[in-house]
Amino acid sequence: MSSRKDQKAANRVVREQIAREQRRKRALWAGVAAVVVLVIAGLIGWSVLRSQQSDTFTAPPGVNDAGNGIVLGTGKVTIDLYEDYLCPACRQFQQTSGATIDQLVSEGKAKVIFHPVAFLNRFSTTQYSTRSSAAAGCAAKGGKFKEFTDQLFARQPAEGSAGLSDDELIDIGAGVGLNRDDFGSCVRAGTYKPWTERVTDDAGRAGVTGTPTILVDGKPVQDRSPDGIKAAVEAAGK
Amino acid sequence: MTVTAVNSSARWAAARPWLGTAARLGLAAVWLIAGGAKVGDLAASGRAVNAYQVMPYDLATVIGAALPFVELALGLLLLVGLASRLAAAVSAALLVVFIAGIASAWARGLAIDCGCFGSGGQLAAGRAPSYLPEILRDLGFLVLAGFLLSWPRTPFSVDGWLAGEPAVEDEDE
C-alpha cells in the first residue's frame, strides 16, 4: 500500500498511545489525591479529638483516690455506680434499687462510688449529660451530691429534648439546700466540666460501655434488683 | 435466541453506567450519613469502637475519632466521582472490617449496638442486639461497593471528566 497511508496509521497509533498514557497519569494522580484526602481526614479527626481533651481537671471534694467518682458512706464493700443523668434505665434502676443501696450504705455494709458519666450527650440538644454531671460536681462541692442526684433522676428530662436548663438545675440545687449564689456560679461557669470528661473517659478505660453499670468490689452485677444487689454485697462482704 | 441475547446485552451495556452512578451516589449517601451521625460526638464514637473490645482503649478512641472524618471524605470522593475504583476498594475494605467486627461481637456474646450510624455501645438491659440485620445491611452496601469496584467509570464523575471521554464506551482501564 501507499507509504502515506502507513504513515497516517502510525501517527494515529502514536497519538492514541500518548492519550492513553495521559489518561493513565491523570488516573494515577486522582488516586494519589484521594489517598491524601482520606489520610488528612483521619488526621483531622485525631487532632479534633486531641483539642477536645483537656489535660487538667479539678475534682470536687469527696471523690475517690482516682478522682473519678463521688464516695458515699464508709462501708467495707465497694459499689461502683456508673450512671448518666439522662439515661432512662438509670432512673429506673434508682427507683427500684436506690433505697436498697441507701440502706446498705447507712447500715455501714457498703460504700458507693458514684461516677456521673456523660455518655448520652447525643441524646439532648444541649449536652445535658455533661451539664448535669458537672452540676453534680458543684453539688458535691456544696456537700449535697446525693440529694441533688436523687432530684435529677426524679426530674429526668426525656431523651432527645433540650434537657433541664442551667437555671432549672440551679433551682433544683437551691431546693436541696445548696447556696444559690455559689452553686449557680459554679454551674454557669462549667467549673467541673473537665472533671466530667475525666470521669467519662476513665469509665470507658475501665471497660464500661453502657449505663447503668454496677460493680460490686469490681465485679459487674447482672441482677440489678434489690435482692440481686443485696446478695452481691453480702457475697463480697464475706 | 440470539436476538434476545444481543438485546439484553445491549440493554445491560446501556444501563450499566447509570447503575454505576446510582451505586456510587448510594454509597456516598451511606458514608455521609454514617460519618455525619458520628462526627458531633467523637468521644462517643471512640466508646462505640471500644465496646467491641478488640483493641486497647486509647487506640479505640483514636480510631473512633478518625473514622467519622474518613467516612465523610469517602462520601465526598464518591459523590464527585474522584478515584471511584479506589474509593470503592476502601469502602469495601471498611465494610468487610465492620462485618467482621459485628460478627465477632455476636460470636463472643456481647450485647452491643454496632454504632454504625451513631449511638453504639452496650445495650440497655432487656434490649436485644440486632446483629443479623446489621450484617445484612452492610452486605448490601458491600454489593454497591463491589459493583463500583468492577465498573468504576460512571456518568457525572470527575474520573470521566479527567479521562475526557464518554463514560459509556470504556472497558477496562
Provide an overview of this structure:
The complex is a heterodimer of chains A (238) and B (173). Chain A is α+β, with helices and mostly antiparallel strands and 238 residues long. Helix content of chain A is 58%, strand content 10%. Chain A is built from eight helices and five strands; from the N terminus they run H-E-E-H-E-H-H-H-H-H-E-E-H. Chain A has helices spanning 3-52, 88-106, 128-141, 145-154, 166-175, 180-189, 193-205, 226-237, and strands spanning 70-72, 77-83, 110-116, 213-216, 219-220. A five-stranded mixed beta sheet of chain A has the order 1-3-2-4-5. In chain A, helix 2 packs across helix 8, helix 3 packs parallel to helix 5 and helix 5 runs antiparallel to helix 6 (180-189). Chain A is elongated, with a radius of gyration of 29 Å. Chain B has 173 residues and is mostly helical. Chain B has one domain (12-159). In chain B, 70% of the residues lie in helices and 2% in strands. Chain B has helices spanning 2-39, 42-50, 57-80, 84-107, 131-150, 158-163, and strands at 112-113, 121-122. In chain B, strand 1 (112-113) and strand 2 (121-122) form a beta hairpin. Chain B is elongated and about 60 Å long. Mean pLDDT of chain B is 88; it is low at 167-173. The chains are: A alpha+beta (238), B mainly alpha (173). The interface between A and B is large, with 36 and 44 residues.
Rg of chain B is 19 Å
SSE run of chain B: HHHHEEHH
Largest Cβ-defined interface: A-B, 36 and 44 residues
pLDDT below 50 for ≥5 consecutive residues: which ranges of chain B?
167-173
Going by helix content, strand content and strand pairing, the class of chain A is alpha+beta
Keywords summarizing the entry:
heterodimer, A: 238 residues, alpha+beta, five-stranded mixed β-sheet, 5 strands, 58% helix, B: 173 residues, mainly alpha, two-stranded antiparallel sheet, 2 strands, 2% strand, elongated, disordered C terminus
